[in-house]
Amino acid sequence: MDLIWVMFGFFAFVTIVFVALAFMYPEIVGITGKKAHEIQKHQQQDDDSTTNTKP
After folding, report:
1. How confident is the model at residue 30, as a pLDDT?
2. Which end of the chain is more exposed for a tag (fewer CB within 10 A), N or C?
3. Which residues make Cβ contacts (< 8 Å) with residue 21, sequence separation at least 6?
4. What is the dihedral sign for C-alpha 47, 49, 51, 55?
5. What pLDDT does residue 19 have?
6. Which helix (H) or strand (E) holds 8?
7. Which helix (H) or strand (E) segment is 4 a member of?
């Protein structure tokens, strides 16, 4: 029975750490954050400017 409580406590701790990391550093846990959206927006602007130019 004690092992179950230890496992439950460990699971709760890991879950809380994951949620905290997800809010502070979303890119670390695989969530697209503000920084990634800025990079994607910048890349789309670069692609638009290169595809509309005439040779």
Report:
1. 78
2. C
3. 28, 29
4. negative
5. 92
6. helix 2-24
7. helix 2-24
User: By the 8 A CB rule, do 27 and 33 touch?
Assistant: yes
Question: What are the distances in angstroms from CA 49 to CA 10, 11, 35?
Answer: 51, 49, 22
> For the chain, what percentages of helix, strand and coil (3-state, to nearest 5) are there?
75, 0, 25
Q: In this structure, what token pair is assigned to residue 10? A: 């460990």
* Phi-psi domain of 53 (left: phi exceeds 0; alpha: psi -120 through 50; beta: other): beta
**Residue ranges of the chain whose pLDDT lies below 50:** none
